[in-house]
Design brief:
This protein has helices at 2-34, 42-68, 75-100, 104-129. The protein has four helices and no strands. The two termini are 27 Å apart. The protein has one domain.
Length: 132
């Protein structure tokens, strides 16, 4: 019974996270589209939207990838595979912050995230390589 309940719990958890993200996306988009952008600020606003849209697409792709990932039934291995995907998504989003953001504080944080997440991705890869 324990093994039947765990996948069901995971599926329900993923469904809840996805539903939350979709609901927030649906609610946020009309408000963003209705915001007037001053003509003089358009290039900066366009750059910011490119970064924001890219981060959102990265988040959705990462969630989709984790949902489609076939689980092995080995909690340790599944954790490592899902966290590796999650960390890569964090690296991608942090790089978008560096490329499109303006705040020096956020850029510094993004660089720290990239270094930390890449280090942990390497640790996951090293461990997964031993799990043939």
């Amino acid at each position: 019974m324990k093994y039947v309940f765990l996948p069901l719990t995971r599926a329900v958890g993923f469904a809840a996270v996805t539903a939350f993200a979709v609901m927030n996306t649906a609610q946020a988009q009309p408000a963003m589209m209705a915001m007037p952008i001053a003509t003089t600020a358009q290039p900066d606003a366009h750059q910011a939207m490119m970064g924001s849209d890219g981060m959102k697409k990265s988040m959705m792709a990462g969630m989709d990838g984790m949902q489609k990932m076939a689980t092995t039934g080995d909690t340790d291995k599944d954790f490592a595979m899902m966290m590796k995907m999650h960390h890569q998504q964090g690296v991608d989003m942090a790089q978008m912050q560096i490329d499109h953001g303006k705040s020096p504080v956020m850029k510094k944080m993004a660089k720290q995230i990239i270094a930390a997440q890449n280090r942990e991705i390497r640790q996951f890869d090293k461990w997964l390589a031993t799990q043939k």
